[in-house]
Amino acid sequence: MPKYLIERDIPGAGALTPEQLQGISQKSCGVLSGMGPKIQWLESYVTDDKVYCVYIASDEATVRSHAEQGGFPANKISQILTMIDPTTAES
């Protein structure tokens, strides 16, 4: 299945408490549970005013559906085409 990077504009995201982040995570997992195996949350990165999430999903519409059901913004959804890291430089 394709992998997606979701950019979520959440002002003050970096100041969210551990309890608030836990609540957001629980909400996301609850929605995912109801959606079945066509979508999986891998990880998220929290910055000052944004959250970047990596999901595996059957298509972009499924990612959007998760965001809508959870009440999360999905300001930009990009399909990840490939990944590189320092080992890419090795021959």
Number of helices: 2
- Contiguous uncertain segments of 5+ residues: none
Tell me the total number of β-strands: 4
Helix-strand string = EHEEHE
How much of the polypeptide forms β-strand, as a percent range?
Answer: 25-35%
**Largest sheet, order of strands side by side?**
2-3-1-4
Indicate the structural class: alpha+beta
Described by strand count, sense and barrel closure, the largest sheet is: 4 strands, antiparallel
In whole angstroms, how far apart are the ends? 28 Å
Instruction: Output the radius of gyration.
Output: 14 Å
User: What would the average pLDDT be, to the nearest integer?
Assistant: 97
Shape: globular
User: Residue share in helices?
Assistant: 25-40%
Keywords:
globular; alpha+beta; 2 helices; 4-stranded antiparallel sheet
Descriptive report:
With 91 residues, this protein is an alpha+beta fold. The chain contains two helices and four strands. The longest helix has 18 residues, at 18-35. The model has no long low-confidence stretch (mean pLDDT 97).
